[in-house]
Amino acid sequence: MIVWLRIVLAAAVILAVSIVLIPLQLLALRFDWRLRRRLPRLWHRIICYCLGIRVRVTGRLEDRRPLMLCSNHSSWMDIMVMSAVADVAFIAKIEVADWPIFGMLAKLQKSVFVVREERRKTGHQANEIAGRMADGEIIVLFPEGTTSDGNRLLEVKSSLFGAAAMAVPASPTGTVVVQPVAIAYTRVHGIPMGRYHRPLAAWPGDIELLPHLIDIVRCGALDAEVSFGEAVEYRADTNRKEVSATIASRIRNLLNSRLRGREIS
User: Fold this and answer.
1) Which 3 state secondary structure label does DSSP give 245?
2) Its Gene Ontology molecular function terms (predicted)?
């Protein structure tokens, strides 16, 4: 009974906040106000609180711009957690635009939808990413290209770092800063999850959203740790595969450190 009361209360608060903030965000998008970058952070912080997701940050977000964050990806919650930490926008595959709920939220946050299979659209997408990064926006990339079970980093696709390369010419300094980030779900009610229970937070894509969302609310207290690592400078002469390997190694070390509760060199 208490669990269902919590679910109803969370739903009511989320609905009320959305009714207030979504129209304001639509106006900010319509007139391209700077406010459109800040409102999603407020909304996601409230949503994380309602869902019982407690976010802890280690390391520091880079001050330099243009900035691209590269993170591991295990759940739909990654979007909320990252958005609660910083004013960010995401690079997402075009299919996300048609997803229920997530598609709408992605559009409200002005995500960049990419069509990887159609080269003729690559130039327009690259120009949009480059222009927005040059304007100071922080863009988030999930270089695995899919979600994992939360216990490991999947293979990082070096081709996805082309977005950073394409943004270099638009950078005033001729450099794009690429910073690794690890998102780890570590505890439920303060108790360490361990490998067996960590998939509770993961959403690999073959699980229906509503039951998974209800399970998260039932938990009532889920700890998410966001770790910012040492950044890499991407220039015109930078080798994309080398950057990809370096970023992957740093994300993996950050993730393993958080999951094991100790630093890994």
Assistant:
1) helix
2) acyltransferase activity
Show the beta-strand stretches assigned E in 17-174.
53-58, 67-71, 88-93, 112-114, 138-141
Judged on CB neighbours under 10 Å (0-12, 13-18, 19+), 122 is middle
pTM here is 0.91
pLDDT of residue 66: 94
| The token pair that represents 144 in the structure block | 């695995």
Give the integer Cα–Cα distance in Å for 82 and 180: 13
Choose between 222 and 17: higher pLDDT.
17
DSSP per-residue string spanning 1-60 = -HHHHHHHHHHHHHHHHHHHHHHHHHHHHHTT-THHHHHHHHHHHHHHHHHTEEEEEES-
Nearest to 141 by CA among 191, 178, 170: 178
Q: For a pLDDT cut of 70, what percent of the chain falls above it?
A: 91
Cα→Cα distances 227→45, 151, 161, 182, Å: 17, 15, 20, 5
Contact assessment for residue 202 and residue 149, using Cβ atoms and an 8 Å cutoff: yes
Structure tokens at 115: 């069509």
CATH of 49-264, picked from 3.40.50, 1.10.287, 3.40.1130, 3.10.450, is 3.40.1130
Question: Does residue 265 surpass a pLDDT of 90?
Answer: no
Residues 6+ apart with CB under 8 A from 185: 74, 75, 77, 150, 193, 198, 200, 201, 202, 222, 223, 224, 225
Give tens-digit pLDDT for 38-59: 999 999 999 999 888 999 999 9
Give tens-digit pLDDT for 143-159: 998 888 888 999 998 88
